[in-house]
Amino acid sequence: MMEWRQHDHVGLKVEADGHVAVITLDNPPAHTWTVHSLSALRDLVGALNADRGIYALVITGDGEKFFSAGADLKQFASGDKAAAREAARRFGEAFEALSGFRGVSIAAINGYAMGGGLECALACDLRIIEEHAQVALPEATVGLLPCAGGTQNLPRLVGEGWAKRMILLGERIDADTALRIGLVEEKVAKGEAKALALAWAHKAGKQSPTSIAACKTLVQATRTGTHASALVAEREAFVDLFDSADQAEGVNAFLEKRAAQWKNA
Predict the structure, then answer these.
(1) Would you name the residues annotated as active-site residues?
(2) Out of 9, 124, 135, 149, which could bridge 107 as a Cys pair, Cβ 3.0 to 4.6 Å?
């Protein structure tokens, strides 16, 4: 499954680094999202899910100033509700696809991540921020609201209070604050987020990709399900792993004191 490497993905650059897909947001100057780049991300994640050789993805912005400044506001200047509905749908499809990626997704926040830019990072499993970067959900400042998961995903990470500071007050936060409140998992020096994200992605590659997909589903189920039903699902998922080649390979590799060779099957 190599087709995704040959395709042109509007507003995105994509390359492979071993079992990791590296997606670079590329719509200068601020890497704003368009309906076309959002569709491209949705389709790309679908293709990556189908490629059993891909275990993780890293997403970052080109250059050192912007991760992504979010939606291009020019498309909303006319007040056209049909255009707004289309944009909201595309944002939802793209970032819900990203959230549902079966492998580990890591956002390397290399600069400003505003609005839909931050919402993209929130849809990933893990986030690394560079020391000069700033993040915000400033939609209410321009008469809009975060419609790409921001009002739902941010409070899960940082709690309702900090989510309200950022969304209701339009508060922009720096890298140190982002780390302190749990919005990101690590802070690094300028220019170093992508390298650490790749290191984390390759660390994930040492895990069974079959196990990772099952674990990710279970962890994300805590957002909606009951604790009791999730415990049942956890045990069932454990037993289901015994249908996979990776389960036998992982246990036997450990017992034979060798590195496992995953099949993602």
Answers:
(1) 119, 139
(2) 124
